[in-house]
Amino acid sequence: METRLTFRYLLIALLITCTACIVSAQPVQTSNLNYIYKPGDAGYSCFRIPAMIVTKKGTLLAFAEGRKNDCGDSGDIDLVLRRSNDGGKTWSAIQVVWSDSTNTCGNPVPVQDLSTGKIWLISTWNNGQDHEKQIRTQTGKDIRRVFVLSSANDGKSWSAAKDITKDVKLPDWTWYATGPCHGLQIANGKFKGRLVIPVNHVEAATNKDFVHIIYSDDHGATWNLGNNTPQDGTNEVTAAELSNGNLMLNIRNADRKKHTRLFTTSTDGGQTWADLQTDTTLIEPVCQGSLLSFSPSKNKNILLFINPADKRKRANITLRASLDDGKTWPYKQVIFAGPSAYSDIAIYNRKQVACLYEAGNDKAYDGIAFKLVGLKDLLGK
Description:
Layout: H1 2-24, E1 35-37, E2 46-54, E3 60-67, E4 77-84, E5 95-98, E6 104-112, E7 119-126, H2 132-136, E8 145-151, E9 162-163, H3 165-168, E10 173-178, E11 184-185, E12 195-203, E13 209-216, E14 224-225, E15 234-241, E16 247-253, E17 260-266, E18 277-283, E19 290-297, E20 300-308, E21 315-322, E22 331-348, E23 352-359, E24 368-374, H4 375-379
């Protein structure tokens, strides 16, 4: 009897040990990611470059680039959209907003005109066989072009894409990238109502990178070109309105040896810009980020920023808040500690920050995830 019990105990111990071995051999899951775009959806190999707004009706519009064949920045790329009417609990099927054969339709920047309700989507186009290097050196099959689309029914359907390149891009510019992120409509001051789209571009003669805005003062009917920043060394860019009505651009650093963000401000609605400055708090591995301002009350303005806050690698996507127009960033919350890259943010229901971001347990481009963060949780009050 004692021998049987001993054998039984040994068998149980062996099973427990083996089970522990099996469990420990499983991939480490850093977090559960709420993907709304993932490889294979709707026949796309990869989704990248998220952009998002919340409409006047409270609808979440989550844009992305649907990349047909791989995760590369060139080739057959469409602009796609998913909509949510319940704060991200459920989402519509993937909707193709703009496709042009095997060419590249990308860099979405959505903005809603709050006076008309119309939603504008500014994007770029290039021949699918051209890579950025060829466009910069003017050796490609075509140039980088700029297009605008619009929706008058809360994003359910979209107009044909209209080429506005001649209005917003100078002939001696090569590379040109809208955002990617949301645009904005100025809420206060002399330029109230102006639609603003942040852009970066490259000069052919100097190969220097500058940022600027394009804007519309007639509800999107025509688009105009603002002036460059005084200095170059810039890349992808995002914009917000500060508490005093000035505009701020927050900019990816073109210098890969630098791991901090650049910024500049404008007092004239984005026509001219102050000298570039460095924000040493907003560290980055050289990547895109997104800036957003929100005024919960007349005398309070919250500036929000999201990016992968890591100097070495694209990881640790972090949401920050400032109550002094970006002078300091005392509030922060890590959205996902693992591999992560491009992102965008919007205010939902005046109480939450909607975050749309590239992330994965293995690599940053495993999919595009969605998360809501309470403003009270972020600010600790």
